[in-house]
Amino acid sequence: MHKEHCKIAKDLNSRYLNTPDDNIGPIVSALTSIGPAAGKRKSTVLGLGIGCFGELSAGIGNVCTFVAL
Questions:
Q1: CA-derived radius of gyration, the chain
Q2: Which of 50, 41, 53, 52 lies closest to 62, judged by CA?
Q3: What gap in Å lies between CA 10 and CA 25, rounded to an integer?
Q4: CA–CA separation, 32 and 59 (whole Å)
């Protein structure tokens, strides 16, 4: 999971669910349950997009690699 996503999820757990900072709250748990993704970082959330001229976001290569495995 990306560092910024992790920080936001921890903040949400702390603010709205009263989860202590040293515990893994339900929001962080849900994000990390997505599972490993292709590439060097596990549990990565990829934002995929297609432009109006058919261009693809950089993460599409990781998805193709993951599907091929």
A1: 15
A2: 41
A3: 7
A4: 18
